[in-house]
Specification:
Blueprint: E1 2-13, E2 16-27, E3 29-34, H1 41-48, E4 56-61, E5 64-65, H2 71-74, E6 77-80, H3 92-103, H4 110-120, H5 136-147, E7 154-158, H6 166-179, E8 184-189, H7 192-198, E9 201-206, E10 209-215, H8 216-221, E11 227-233, H9 237-243, E12 245-252, E13 255-261, E14 272-273, H10 278-289
Parallel strand pairs: 3-8, 3-9, 6-7, 7-8
Antiparallel strand pairs: 1-2, 1-4, 4-5, 9-10, 11-13, 11-14, 12-13
The structure holds adenosine-5'-triphosphate.
């Protein structure tokens, strides 16, 4: 199963091009879309979900043009939009039955499927309560469950971990890891650590463009030799920040351990090179392309 995206552009109006000449091939497994606010992540996901039409370019799923034939993906699609709305008066069962009807999913197995999904997102105990009484994280979890109702082969999750506590994040990871053997799963976040623990491959985007895509270790390699650490006195940090892109600081006794981006030729004296992480690589690559 493969999704082939070629020269995709989306222009919302004369001033706003949200996606520009974007090409990517997405295979089975979990692809994490990383990018700052406004990078075009949601726009890309909406185009794949055929909720929105591209201004230019093509999207093919296993050789079928899904701009011309959106049903080819809709049949096998599970989608959690960023602004997922729920019906406050319905309980979880009623809501999932309603979504199942809209997706044309039914039959004798439906009740069982809903039970399994509610268990999967840890909502069994609250299934009879109106969704309007749920917390933000619980609403997000019912959103995840509805995306899985039709046994999808292409799953799109826009910021799925928003509002989830660490335990629920772990549960989400396990839930989709099992599905990834057999599905294309695309999820977005601007929280690098979420993508780091969930995704096999990562696509970094910025300003509507794809900066890089690959396995995590290959993306991290791109920042090798560019990340340094230095111990600074308290009052030197502000000036240091004017000269270098600081990634992180941590107070250690009376000094500040400062992680920053540079290269060997320009690193500050008394710095030590350190091994890059995905977060470092993300900041390095988006800074270079800003
Ligand atoms: N319907 C629209 N009309 C006009 N501009 C839009 C529309 N939707 C999105 N945009 C703009 O397109 C750009 C890309 O937006 P998009 O929501 O795809 O980014 P994103 O990477 O998902 O951002 P975030 O992380 O904040 O959700 C932004 O500048 C946004 O303001």
């Amino acid at each position: 199963m493969a999704l082939e995206i070629t020269n995709l552009s989306k222009q919302y109006n004369a001033q706003k091009t949200a996606l520009s000449n974007y090409s990517i091939t997405i295979n089975k497994g979990i692809l994490g879309l990383l990018g700052p606010n406004g990078a075009g992540k949601s726009t890309l996901m909406k185009l794949i979900a055929t909720i929105s039409k591209p201004t230019q370019g093509s999207l093919f799923l296993d050789g079928t043009d899904i701009v011309q034939h959106p049903d080819a993906i809709r049949r096998v699609l599970g989608y959690l939009p960023q602004d997922f709305g729920v019906y406050p008066n319905l309980n979880a069962y009623e809501f999932l039955e309603y979504i199942a009807a809209m997706k044309g999913v039914g039959g004798p197995g439906l009740r069982k499927r809903i039970d399994v999904l509610l268990e999967g997102v840890n909502l069994t105990a609250d299934a009879k309560r109106p969704i309007g009484t749920y917390s933000g994280g619980m609403k997000q979890r019912i959103g995840i469950a509805q995306a899985l109702l039709n046994d999808p082969k292409v799953l799109i999750f826009d910021e799925p971990t928003v509002g989830l506590d660490p335990e629920e994040r772990m549960r989400f990871r396990q839930l989709i890891a099992d599905l990834a053997q057999d599905c294309i799963i695309i999820l977005s976040s601007h929280i690098v650590s979420d993508i780091e623990t969930i995704a096999d491959e990562v696509a970094i985007m910025q300003g509507g463009k794809l900066i890089t895509k690959g396995y995590q270790q290959d993306i991290i390699k791109q920042a090798d030799g560019q990340i340094f650490e230095i111990f600074l006195e308290n009052n030197n940090l502000t000036e240091f920040k004017n000269r270098y892109k600081v990634i992180d600081t941590a107070r250690q006794n009376d000094r500040i351990k400062t992680r920053y981006i540079s290269n060997d030729a320009h690193a500050a004296p008394s710095s030590a090179p350190v091994k890059a992480t995905l977060e470092d690589a993300y900041l390095f690559l988006t800074q270079n392309n800003a």
